[in-house]
Amino acid sequence: MERDLALAVNMADEADRISMERFRALDLQIDTKPDLSPVTEVDHAIERGVRDRILRERPAHAVMGEEFGLHGDGAAAWRWVIDPIDGTRSFVRGNETWATLIALQHDGQTELAVASAPALRLRYHASRGGGAFLNGRRIHVSLISAIEDAFITHTSIPGFVRVGLAGRLVHLAGRCWDARGLGNSMSHLAVARGTADIGWTSRANVWDFAALALIVEEAGGRFTDRSTDDPQLGGTGISTNGLLHEMVLEAAGMAV
Question: Whole-prediction pTM value?
Fold first, then answer.
């Protein structure tokens, strides 16, 4: 696993180089996908680079990416899951709250993860059973145990409106000490590092959560991933410090 983690870190370094060279470029090429979300030349370049590197150095592994789908054997036990730019809207507007997400899964379970936010100079990594780290230092979730003391972070309000969860988000946020919209990666990574207590994504896919979930869990938190409930559009994702998890799932209408 150490060799795979080293490979993931090296690929994240290259992804950072590509993204930062074009971040805030005036001639950045931006297109619109069928779901009306933006995609840039950088999304494509990073995913191609990571995919080609994996298929060359780990030929028995499959690769699933946001932009180009599945490559390799779909039945392979080992699968890399890539989101080249998570937060493309932030990227194209010149905001720093975006990240490259890289995860390696075995039989559908994430075993290692890297989340790199180069514009913020933040690099997270985790391996199953090995803890979670930010810029080389081990991190841990907060110890907040009461909703009224909690800091909740979330993705865009329009996203919650589109999936009919805006009312639940506002109700839960109104019970919390404070709330901020940070986007998908930054919301859940804030939970992992203990600067937020709850992170909520309205709707996403496997590549949005695969790396983030392991980082949160290895930092001592919990992550509920519903991205596979709807294979076409994805589902919601909630992270917490663990102490608040059941209360948050109930408030979100996701309690079992």
Answer: 0.95
